[in-house]
Amino acid sequence: MGVSGTGKTTIACLLATRLGVPFADANDFHTPGNVAKMSSGLPLDDSDREPWLAAVGRWLHDRDTAGTGGVVACSALKRRYREILRASASTVFFLLLTADREQLIERMAHRHGHYMPLSLLDSQLAALEPLESAERGAVLSADQAPEKVAQAAATLLQKHASTPDAE
Question: What are the entry keywords (predicted)?
């Protein structure tokens, strides 16, 4: 999870490959209307996000039910969005990827074929609610090579899975 430009998709795909589990990009679950809205530089509101979060939640639930696990790259900026996802799949573990604003701008400026314009970065940064202590998850800096971040994520997940109170 995290704002645009943190490398969510790249790192999540690497992590899923490393773990041998299915991968999904939450961007693929957006309605055409949501994509058009963001492409035009307008941020989504909560009513836009509800069907999107429900679809991502169903994907997580299906992986949980099948016992395969999975990795999904999803902004999940607000705690209430994460609660929607957690209600669908109670075992979800959030990894918040962070980077400084300048690095995010640099990354976003050099992306091709992505509908999220640089003009929406500040609205995402303003909306981001960091993980709270009661939320199952961890924070990782995404200022290293994606392979290193994916390895750190895998290590965190393995540590979490071996903790006695882990579900």
Answer: ATP-binding, Kinase, Nucleotide-binding, Transferase
